[in-house]
Design goal:
890 residues, 6-stranded mixed β-sheet, mainly alpha
């Protein structure tokens, strides 16, 4: 690359032929041997001239060199003048050491742009716009430093910005590429030479107040020299602005530091939204663009999840993404993820990568061999810039796998000898230093806005492991996360539940990592952490995994001597989760034991929680009378101690018992009281659940239209709250009301959505299997693929789906099909949560078949569940009861 080499500085005044020859040769991208071969002179001649051993070369030699360098016009004249010198003037004495500043553009007043062409940028639009605005604002900073990790795209961004601001800098836009070990003389000489001057005062005179921009790349290669030169230039040339790239700021007064961060990556949840949600993320777009350069076929939709996972694993670092994408000539995205997903730090690039960006060989020595540089080497270079205590802090912060806050950093960096936290450790200076070096990403304005780049985090973990401190750091991390969870847990009950759940969601990765490591090295901390998570696990549908964690930790001999109250809360958490997946009978003894512990210690909140969980377990194990006794005990205890929310919870459970006894009016009164309490306390979720139960009461009363209207509003509110489990259940009730009201098409749409969204969860013990009845055709709801609508049997909503199908078939007059579906609903609810659905299915089955023998089974179920038939159900069965009575009399 030889941009604008025909424009050269005038005669040397302060530097001579060695610097001029070396600068022109490096700008042309030639080695000494290549220049000698082009010019037809000996290599030794070029070497001696650059070393200053030949003070006055022959004119023929100088002309041959000028021709080989393709110099013309003023540039050629200037070169010849410097080489031969005017009569009586000798060239300046040579500088010591090798040339370390490489010119990649030259300019003179009036020339708008003398930079290499910009490279394609993806995902940097906001950076470009803001930097352009900053550099074209008359009151903007005169020195802007683009700071970041190697490979993050600083140089490409600087080139793009330089081209974008050319029109507003009539004095020219040019740049220099700093070489290793450059001294101030070399840097100053080439910095003014690219504008056609020989000294700073001459540059000021040539610009004559016209704005100009100097781009200085790789400033970290000669930090002191660059800082000294820029200080002099900014002071001497008022119209000059400087855009610098480096791994750390220059350190001058008035400098505006601009951290360059990796590209945004698609979050894990984007994968479940389909292939379309994975495109549009800058990191994925860059990978796809670079992949297109090495293979013809665009990525198939099935390959996009692997691409998303890969760029996420690469931390959005452009260099890493391009290196991996280049291997796409041989491997597909899934193979790339498998092969390189865990070897990010080992990704290597030869220095020819720099040439592909248009920079030449990045200031390397002319005859130096091509060297492979790994990401580990790049991170290590920035790591070495840290003070010892900053390195320790980095290794500790690397324990966080995702985003974290200043407060969490403060806890992680606290003095270990200060158990009481009496000595405050301010983490802000360390965070500022890490951000200054581009090692730390700061995104957004919320508390959890800090994150180490993935490559940096892996490198720091390597350093901690090598020093034998990794286990200790992970143990400390588990303690910090356990303390965070303990602070959030009280908010999982009450008006702040939604916010608390979202806070835990954001820390999900760190919670999982802390549990995994602490379970091995510090089981007591792990038990303390897990015991507070049961409500969150239940809310997020992770009841099986959560219960497994609690059971594993409770069974660990190292937790046998833990505080009895802690073990009781853990036992209760496991019992709460067991109720969600059909294992209630296995956890009943543990729940009773937890209640006994809380009684002995006088823990009222513990007793209320234990009795509430016991009520759920007893319902699921076919003990409704005992379950009601627990709900009444909760109501009494809560009333006695003034715990209004627990009063509302008890009333909700008792309303459900009223429904079982066919006292719909009593249930409505209790739920109205719950709604009032929830409104007074601002507990939106409790109020929404009360309204969900009122929807069911309306349906059982035969007010199907009201049930549908109110139910749809509740479904929307549950979606807004982020409660998928209750939303599915409410959706099922809406579908059932639609089917019973004869609204077939709308009911079919609900069926399709239920079948598509119902997750299949692993069960801890075998469950029933049932053949699938013949089905009605159903179109997929908007946004769902057709292959996602199939009937996955059995699943959590199988019973309600079968009830909906049975009512639809009955409404259409197909009694045979209705009987099949009602029979399936009976089997689905045989050991389910709400035996009321089983009663409803048996009523439908009896009405469909006209078989009086089913009445005996129905009576047995009602007797076992302490339930009564509703008036309209009795009417449906009136004829069958009469038939059975007639047979008995005969």
């Amino acid at each position: 690359m030889t941009p604008a080499r025909d424009r050269s500085p005038g005669p040397a005044d302060g530097f001579g032929l060695p610097e001029f020859l070396r600068g022109h040769r490096l700008a042309a991208g030639l080695t000494q041997a290549e220049l000698a071969n082009r010019a037809g002179v000996g290599v030794r001649t070029v070497r001696d001239l650059e070393r200053g051993r030949s003070s006055r070369p022959q004119r023929t030699t100088v002309e041959l060199l000028a021709g080989a360098l393709e110099l013309s016009g003023a540039a050629r004249t200037a070169f010849l003048t410097v080489a031969r010198g005017p009569v009586g003037v000798e060239p300046a004495a040579p500088t010591s050491g090798s040339a370390a500043a490489t010119r990649f553009g030259t300019g003179e007043p009036g020339l708008a742009l003398t930079l290499p062409p910009p490279v394609e940028l993806i995902g940097r639009d906001r950076d470009v716009d803001e930097l352009v605005a900053m550099l074209t604002d008359e009151r903007g900073p005169r020195l802007v430093s683009l700071v970041g990790l190697a490979g993050v795209g600083k140089s490409a961004l600087a080139l793009t910005v330089g081209h974008a601001v050319a029109g507003s800098h009539p004095g020219g836009v040019a740049g220099v590429l700093i070489g290793e070990g450059s001294d101030a003389h070399d840097v100053l000489a080439i910095s003014v030479a690219v504008f056609g001057a020989t000294r700073a005062p001459e540059l000021a005179a040539r610009l004559a107040g016209r704005p100009a921009l100097l781009v200085v790349d790789a400033a970290e290669r000669a930090t002191g020299s660059v800082a000294e030169v820029l200080h002099r230039l900014i002071a001497a040339v008022p119209s000059l602005r400087v855009l610098v790239t480096g791994r750390h700021p220059v350190g001058l007064s008035g400098e505006r530091v601009w951290p360059v961060t990796p590209l945004e990556v698609p979050p894990p949840e984007a994968e479940v939204s389909g292939p379309a949600a994975l495109t549009g993320w800058p990191a994925a777009e860059l990978f796809i663009a670079r992949l297109a350069q090495v293979r013809r076929e665009p990525p198939a939709p099935a390959e996009l999840p692997a691409i998303a996972a890969l760029v996420r694993r690469l931390g959005g670092l452009p260099l890493a993404i391009e290196l991996v994408a280049a291997r796409g000539r041989v491997l597909d995205p899934a193979e790339l993820l498998d092969r390189y997903g865990d070897r990010v730090l080992d990704l290597a690039t030869p220095d020819t990568y720099a040439q592909s960006r248009g920079w030449g060989r990045r200031g390397a020595e002319p005859d130096a061999p091509s060297v492979a540089v790994t990401l580990r080497d790049a991170v290590a270079a920035s790591y070495r810039l840290l003070a010892p205590e900053e390195r320790v802090a980095l290794c500790r912060l690397a324990a966080f796998g995702h985003r974290w806050s200043v407060e969490l950093a403060e806890e992680m960096l606290a003095c270990e000898a200060d158990a009481d936290g009496a000595v405050a450790i301010d983490p802000v200076p360390v965070l500022d230093r890490l951000a200054e070096l581009g090692l730390l990403s700061v995104c957004g304005t919320g508390p959890l806005r800090f994150r180490l780049l993935d490559a940096v985090r892996e490198f720091a973990i390597e350093q901690a492991a090598g020093a034998g401190k990794l286990t200790h750091i992970r143990r400390r991390h588990a303690g910090v996360i356990a303390a965070l969870v303990a602070r959030i847990v009280p908010d999982l009950v009450g008006a702040r539940l939604t916010g608390a759940v979202r806070r835990l969601d954001k820390m999900n990765g760190d919670i999982s990592a802390a549990l995994a490591h602490a379970a091995t090295d510090d089981p007591l901390t792990a038990l303390r952490l897990a015991s507070g998570l049961s409500r969150w696990w239940r809310f997020r549908g992770r009841d099986v995994a959560g219960r497994q964690w609690l059971r594993r930790l409770l069974a660990d001999p190292r937790t046998a001597d833990a505080d009895p109250a802690l073990r009781a809360w853990a036992e209760l958490g496991a019992a709460r989760l067991a109720a969600e997946h059909g294992s209630a009978d296995e956890e009943l003894p543990a729940a009773w034991a937890a209640l006994d512990t809380f009684r002995r210690t006088g823990d009222v909140p513990g007793q209320l929680a234990a009795r509430t969980v016991l009520g759920s377990l007893l319902i699921r194990t076919g003990c409704p009378v005992e379950a009601r006794e627990q709900a009444e005990a909760v109501l009494q205890l809560a009333t006695r101690h003034g715990r209004i929310r627990d009063v509302a919870v008890a009333q909700t459970y008792l309303a459900w018992h009223e429904v079982r006894l066919a006292d719909l009016a009593g249930a409505r009164r209790r739920l109205a009281a719950v709604d009032r309490i929830a409104a007074e306390r601002g507990e939106q979720r409790l109020r929404v659940l009360a309204r969900a139960n009122l929807v069911e009461v309306a349906r059982l009363e035969g007010r199907y239209g009201d049930a549908v209207d109110q139910g749809r509003r509740v479904v929307a509110m549950l979606a807004e709250l982020g409660d998928p489990g209750h939303r599915r259940r409410m959706l099922g009730r809406v579908g059932l009301a639609l089917a019973q009201g004869g609204r077939e098409d709308e009911a079919a749409e609900v069926l399709a959505e239920l079948r598509a969204c119902a997750p299949v969860r692993p069960r801890l013990r075998p469950r029933w299997e049932h053949p699938v009845p013949r089905q009605r055709p159903a179109a997929a709801p908007a946004g769902l693929a057709a292959d996602h609508v199939g009937w996955r049997w059995p699943h959590l909503e199988a019973g309600i789906c079968a009830l909906i199908e049975g009512n639809l078939a009955l409404h259409q007059g197909d009694r045979e099909l209705a009987a099949e579906w009602f029979s399936a609903a009976v089997e689905a609810g045989a050991d389910g949560y709400d035996r009321r659905d089983t009663v409803e299915a048996l009523v439908g089955l009896a009405a469909s078949t006209g078989d009086p023998a089913l009445l005996d089974r129905l009576e047995r179920v009602c007797q076992e569940g302490a339930m009564r038939l509703l008036p309209h159900e009795q009417e449906l069965l009136y004829a069958l009861v009469a038939v059975r009575g007639g047979r008995a009399s005969r």
